[in-house]
Amino acid sequence: MQLKKVFLVGPMGAGKTTIGRLLAQELNLPFKDSDREIEERTGADIPWIFDVEGEEGFRNRETSALEALSQQSDMVLATGGGIVMRAENRTLLAARGIVVYLATSVEQQVLRTSKDRKRPLLQNEDPAAVLQKLLDIRDPLYRDIADYVVETDNRNPKAVAIDIAALLANK
Ligand SMILES: Nc1ncnc2c1ncn2[C@@H]1O[C@H](COP(=O)(O)OP(=O)(O)O)[C@@H](O)[C@H]1O
Ligand SMILES: O=C(O)C1=C[C@@H](OP(=O)(O)O)[C@@H](O)[C@H](O)C1
Ligand SMILES: [Mg+2]
C-alpha cells in the first residue's frame, strides 16, 4: 500500500474509533482520532465545545484539526461523523489519503450510541430520527469521497478491521 494515510468516515456509531484502533494495529500504523485531537487541543470535551461555542465553533476546530492531522505522515485517522459536512474537509480527505466509509444502518447506530452521553447531537428524545435525518444528508457525501465502502452491520469490529486491511493490501 503506497499511500499510508487511511481515513475512516461514517455516521455516529459506525465504529470509526473502535475499528480505526484495530485497523491501525493490523497495519502497524499510528492511530489518531479527530475528536480526541480536538479535545486535546482545546483542553475541553466535545459537549463543552458544543455548549460554549456551538456546532459552528466545533466545526471550525474540526477543520483545523483535520488540516494539521492530514499533513502528518502515516496513520489511521478516525474522523467524526459530521466531518463531511464541509466541502473543504471532503477535499482534504479525498486528496490526502484513502477514504473508507463504514456503512451502518440507523438501527445499529442507535443501538451502539444509546449508552454514550458524549454526542451532543443525540441528547434529545428521538436520536433515531436525528440519525436518520443526518444519514439522508451525509450518506451521499460519504460515498462521494469513499475509495471503499465497508458494511458493518452484524459484524464484529475485528473482522471488519481485518477485511479493510486486506482491501488496502491489494491496492
Ligand atoms: N461492528 C460493531 N459491532 C458492534 N458494536 C460496535 C461495532 N463497531 C463499534 N461498536 C460499538 O459501538 C460503540 C460506538 O463505536 P465508535 O467506535 O465510538 O463509533 P464512531 O467513532 O463511529 O462513533 C462502541 O461502544 C463500540 O464498541
Ligand atoms: O456526527 C456528528 O456530527 C458528530 C460525530 C461525533 O463523532 P463520532 O462519529 O465518532 O461519534 C463528534 O464528532 C460530534 O459529536 C459530532
Ligand atoms: Mg468516534
Automatic annotation (TrEMBL):
Residues noted as binding Mg(2+) in the record, renumbered to the chain: T17
EC number: 2.7.1.71
Pathway, per record: Metabolic intermediate biosynthesis; chorismate biosynthesis; chorismate from D-erythrose 4-phosphate and phosphoenolpyruvate: step 5/7
Domain of life: Bacteria
Keyword Membrane: no
Annotated substrate binding sites: D35, R59, G81, R138
Catalytic reaction equation(s): shikimate + ATP = 3-phosphoshikimate + ADP + H(+)
Annotated cofactor note: Binds 1 Mg(2+) ion per subunit.
A GO term for molecular function: shikimate kinase activity
CDD domains documented for this protein: SK
Names of the cofactor(s): Mg(2+)
Family stated for the protein in its record: Belongs to the shikimate kinase family.
Entry protein name: Shikimate kinase
Lineage: Bacteria, Pseudomonadati, Pseudomonadota, Gammaproteobacteria, Cellvibrionales
